[in-house]
Amino acid sequence: MVTDWCQHLRTVLLWGEEDPLFPKTQVGLGESGGFAATGLSREGWRDAGPIRAIFKDAFTAAGLPYFNPRSFPDTLVQRGQRICTTPEDFRAWSLNLGHQGVLTTFTSYGQMSSQRQAELIRAMGKRSPAEGAERLAAMVAETVRKYQAEI
């Protein structure tokens, strides 16, 4: 649903990068002479209350359990934590989410469950020290190659 909504904003309404993902309802004079919804404003909502209500109605209409709007960036950050293999990868992922600092991504979104924490700790215990050293050496070598390519 969110993917379809994003596509609608981009292709039908010609929304740009700076326009809100969940725009405020545009209110104007309705056919009966009173105030009525007349479209979408290019302004965002003041708070998340209306967005949560829209999500709740949409999930209910689709016969799905409710997930609040914040669950989407949380899910994207968790996905990034699993697929990004270097700090630079995660920095790019973070920037793509609109975060200026990667710490925002780490501290505000994608909270780690205790189950996932345990999985990672167990996996670390199975790695040999040589494997960690090889991984670090490969990261340093890649950084040096990129730096040399830039100069």
Notable traits:
151 residues; mainly alpha; two-stranded antiparallel sheet; 7 helices; 2 strands; elongated
Any overview of this molecule?
With 151 residues, the chain is mainly alpha-helical. It folds into 2 domains: 2-61, no CATH class; 71-130, no CATH class. The protein has 7 helices and 2 strands. A two-stranded antiparallel ribbon has the order 1-2. β1 and β2 (35-44) form a beta hairpin. The longest helix is centred in the last third of the chain and has 22 residues, at 129-150. The chain is elongated, with a radius of gyration of 22 Å. The termini are far apart. The mean pLDDT is 86.
State Rg.
22 Å
Note the total helix count: 7
Strand residue percentage: 5-15%
Helix content: 55-70%
The description of the largest β-sheet is: 2 strands, antiparallel
Order of helices and strands: HEEHHHHHH
Structural class: mainly alpha
Number of strands: 2
Stretches where pLDDT is under 50 for at least 5 consecutive residues are: none
Question: Which helices and strands, and how do they pair?
Answer:
Blueprint: H1 2-12, E1 23-29, E2 35-44, H2 49-61, H3 71-83, H4 87-96, H5 102-108, H6 114-126, H7 129-150
Antiparallel strand pairs: 1-2
